Amino acid sequence: MSKFRAFMKIKPLLLLISAAWLCLAGMAWAEKADRNKPMNIEADSLRYDDLKQVSVFTGRVVLTKGTIVIRSDRLEVRQDPDGFQFGLATGSADRLAFYRQKREALDEFIEGEGETITYDGKADTVTFSRKAQLRRLRGSTLADEITGGSIVYENLTDLFTVDGVANNGPTGALGNSGRVRVMLTPKPEPGANTAPIDPTKLKPSATLGGAPK
What we know:
213 residues
């Protein structure tokens, strides 16, 4: 397996942080089987446009696809002629859209939030925009966390790109003057015990936009 890599379009000093993430993140990909799993969606209402082949779900939307979970206020879903699925989840400044997915062969999850989350089934990428956050959990323990204006996460390679300012938002849209912020923890020593996953303790899974702000 290839190493977990990170490239950030930020100032040279912060490139050192990218190298740190590379060393600490471990060797694993997102759950590969998810892209071939059926997509299931629950919501308060649905509007389907047969001409455009677009479904729009609104109100307490919950999408599951294998280990993938997306929660949002609104979700627009379409499927191309080749069968690839695409989704645009929309939250708000107060209730961010939420995404979570298990990492391949590990007791770890990648999860994130943003005012909008775009899922591209063909490229197998997830884009978090405006107030974007990306976290890695070992079991139920927060290991690493990154915030920025926009984060693009590539499921198949664990490659991600972080911009301090969202492409579709003004400077300071993140609420921190457009700065990228990173928190990293050392990788546990071989044989070290990791707390088992307790879904009830994963705060972001309990509400629409993750843990209370």
